[in-house]
């Protein structure tokens, strides 16, 4: 089934049952992104979202040097940020707006994926590395990860999601402003302390192993329960408590009508591992 | 006055002036909840809310083994989660929805209580332990507390408030997804680090003593000031800053018209403890 | 140009290029605030917002004893909180409401300043110290800072912004309720742990030096990129992700049409420091 | 079953199958409300909400003189609005706040009733008549109805829901401000034109007959479809389109799993009236 | 260029300069929708959105008998609403949810189209006719249009947008509940009175002619001004005034940098028709 | 006291007790606005808001030819819309944004005025006429009023409030899009039908007389009740019902503590006109 996920700049493999591994694969350019790549990210995660054989996903970058160095600035300066196109300021603005909205939508498709996604940030993790991993559910990193909200260093405000999602992801708004305004590089210890990542491992291979272990653990649970937990958390994130509770009530009104509850309860009593139907 | 709070599965006592102690009292079942208990929780906190002799509340579980193990699964499988009732999927869904909404409302009555509530999570604190304590104002725990967002282990998404309130309570959304999707047990050190609890004590008796001390300290302040602080924080939680400020302005327009301000200021200058009228 | 910023209770200086230093200057009263001072704060930050020679701001208190002890209670009890004025409860309430709204607006002008503002909290930092610094972008402190959400100790709920902004600034709501309900004094270690400040330095002079260094670093970036980062973070704070992304898209549609992007990219490649036009 | 609905100031009858008729019954006082009456309203609509024999409700006032003249001012001036109780302004304010919130909640229970409620406004319909009928789903009136947002005439802003619900109910905000600020009496023609009512009949008996006909028509539809339509409209009212659509999707994911859809489709093809199971 | 818009169930033509005409083309089935058709609607409007030769769009149904009779119930009962697929209630619910979300997204693509869309509702306009036309900008109808929020008649709550968008489109919430709960058929006079349509014409050909005239008028304006007006109205619809104004400010900060403003002003003074560059 | 309101382009008079009349006074230019005028509008309404001698306000344009023709395009093309200023697109955008935000704020000061404001739209009422009158509480017009959302005709989207406030003011979103996208001129009959105005009079002098009569009626009510009604309606406008009710509860908790309630009730019983203290 891996053949269904055939993209030039991505490797999609299935290292353990129910778990997909998406690897950004442009290591010679530090996994920097050009346009085709975010279109591919969207296509891959849309497919994983409904793939009955997938219950959890991990996301990494190929090679040892970078998760991703972010936007491929060279490619961008010939495209999105070039002087070509309309000279009228408003028309140019509309072209840019279309482009940014499309780019944002592609990255948001990671968030919309029904299955939990674990990002493993290793080595250079600049700019888009944050935009993307903040659209994932869980973030892990390694001892040598170098994080940076790099965008101000190329003269712009981060526009693919970091400025909307980072302040919700961590509990230190002074720190958010500090790193977003200064573009300074910070490491995993700091990322862990502020809550950007929830686990740090000594190197990439250990982090991948632990990520897969966590993905497998999640994949061993009822896919109905996992789906509901992800979707309700995402829905409730920027709603009031009252709205979140109402959504939860109707969600579970639908989703409690499953054999999984009985199977999960029974196997809990019997201390054995339950088997759940595909989603 | 303790006789006013007479419930089979709860002890309500008044260990120090102005402070109520609500104890979940079903220790032989690890303080697991059946339906009558959440109805009682609602009744108790509605009464405490308006009780002029109460200015702060602590919430604990009876015995050493558990704050609460969560929903009494055995009782639930004969009730809410049983196969009885309508067979039509939609009618069954509506029955479930009514049930969940009522259950949520009961727990929200803790949040609506005008007086601050301090939860002391000790030993087993699974599932509903989080739903309930997240509706409290302050969370303390002990060295041996075992926390778990347990619901995915019984095949469902947590639906009594955890998925709405937990992400606002702590500053590490990656960690929230991690524990909510994996149902893994975690301890007080981790809970403290992410901000789920704001204090950890060596055992239950020390935690209760410290909880009572904090409750007493709060109870020594102007009840008008304490009420306003709780209510404005709750109102502002999921509003914009602009809306929060406007609500605050009219709140204090009403609540500054009190003798308490003068008494508090004067006793501050005179370095003595003020006495405030009942609320 | 410092002469443009001539106020009795504030010193405004320009210690390094592009950076303004606003100092609360009433050290003999622990920098406590009376009405003229919050009107001045508003005037100063409105001017800094559009001053082309300013790209970042630091805010401190004069002297070693206090950033600010908060509201000048003596002045307030002769004014806002006095018994003079209307005796009709509703008319008194309306007078208070007008007063609170005006006071809030003045402090919010710090938040609205287009340039990043770094608060350096040192020594006594009570009440208004929090309201003000929470309207700043970045908070630093010193080993001896004494913080307190002091308002309940004078019989009222904090009404100039703390109760709206503090819960968003840090990732520990249990702690927020703890300090806001108890008015207890806490130190920098605790402030750092919960995320209220993002850096602690050994004393005021080191903190000011580090604050200036950070301000200079930010001031060395494209002013367009810095402006956008601050404004989008502020706008997105209490909007949904979807709304934040849409706002970001149109913002950058306008703001990518700048020479700064090219200059920043080029100087990045050439490893030299770019120069940007004034804002 | 009417005996289950035995209240001094309300008649609850079941004039046609599936339809309840709630009549405010204090005609000698123009159906003016005192406290017990809004507590009763709450109790009645909570019960109707879950009563399997009820699928639609109409609400009227007894007698020919009034739907209701609003709050019983005499009763109120001895209670809520009296000088008794605390003299401290803040404590008095808190007592009033508790009272208003409880009163609002009782009226909101009409809105929360799972079954559609049709208000038939006839003759004098002042103050609370609007608060109540705006919590209903459909409003009808008669040629002689006299409407007034009467509250400013007794020195206060309407506080039981009119100021929140009226602007959403009609499409003429200039008119809303006009009638709410002037307290002027207006008639059914005007109410129809601005959309406050959706039908006007020549007198009370015709209006009741038409109201019952409409209630019967609604009661003849699938109760699952009717419930969903009411609940989704209420939920979506003050949410964004995006949020409303997401809620709708999960609602119907649960509620399409019903025999009613098949029965309704089939009877549609066969041009016969379907029979649906109770809710 | 019409060849770019080649779909079995839709005719896309360009009757006048800058104006596209989208015609639902399944007249033998009263233009009822099956799945391929909403996928096509999405594809068509996504393309129109960026087509530089299009500045306004009209939407009609082929033939004289119907704009659309709504969902093709026969097709649906073999698909979405069939008994096939998973028997587990939760898995069935998730399948339905995916389906509904995808269907909603397709219809929302009309709303997202950058160019104004005018729906011309004629003859039978049931169910989906409302979902679709409510995602358009302007609604016109004919003397013989038969409208119905038909969904309750097939046992379900309308789930493709009507219940979210209709209450915002018209100013008579009592009427919205009336028609949505009763599924009764209503005509153009009523639709005009409540504001569902803003123009009624004697028959389809006149309505199409008038729709084209209006589309041409809009197409004669600056495409930048038209785009901004549509997008700001849509964005502001369910935001606060404050948020709407901020979005508007940055929008126009980008979009005032256009030659169109000068051209429009000048041609206004010179009483001649301006020519604007393509978007 | 009229001398306090001395502005070159505005006449402020006090034609009847408690009522102010603000007249835009640049009739030779059809009352078109240049920058100083919106700054003055802000200053005037801020002062009226707190002026104890004012309880209601009417707003008109001097002369018979126009309420206002909108922005003075000639002045604007030499200022805001000129080619002077920065050539860098982003810096130009920021200048425009500052300008628009300041302009919006000035007009919003009409909305923030504590006293109800009645706009009387007569003759030419283009562009800014709508922005301004939509920030008023009540809109009246005359038989000859010519309305137009004129902005698209000068190549831009309306940015001073119309696109945010108009859709909330009227109940016909199709019509809103129609007039906003086409810039067509419409008259009072249409304005009345859609709810943009709530009264139409035969000419300006009659409209002013009726406006004054309505202002006087409102001014005869308790100023506390009037203030509360305006402020709660404005606050609730874009909040949820739940939030609006909570705000209302604390508002009235403060504002019921007034002599006005007793005076209003008593004079109601005694059928005499009450006298209320100044606000």
From TrEMBL, chains A, B, C, D, E, F:
The protein's predominant localisation is other
What domain of life does the native source organism fall in?
A: Eukaryota
Keyword Ribonucleoprotein listed? The answer is no
This protein's GO cellular component annotations are:
mitochondrion; peroxisome
The pathway entry for this protein reads as: Lipid metabolism; fatty acid beta-oxidation; Mycotoxin biosynthesis
**Compartments where located:** Peroxisome
One function term, GO molecular function aspect:
delta(3,5)-delta(2,4)-dienoyl-CoA isomerase activity
Its family?
Answer: Belongs to the enoyl-CoA hydratase/isomerase family.
Q: What is this protein called?
A: ClpP/crotonase
Native species of this protein?
Melanomma pulvis-pyrius CBS 109.77
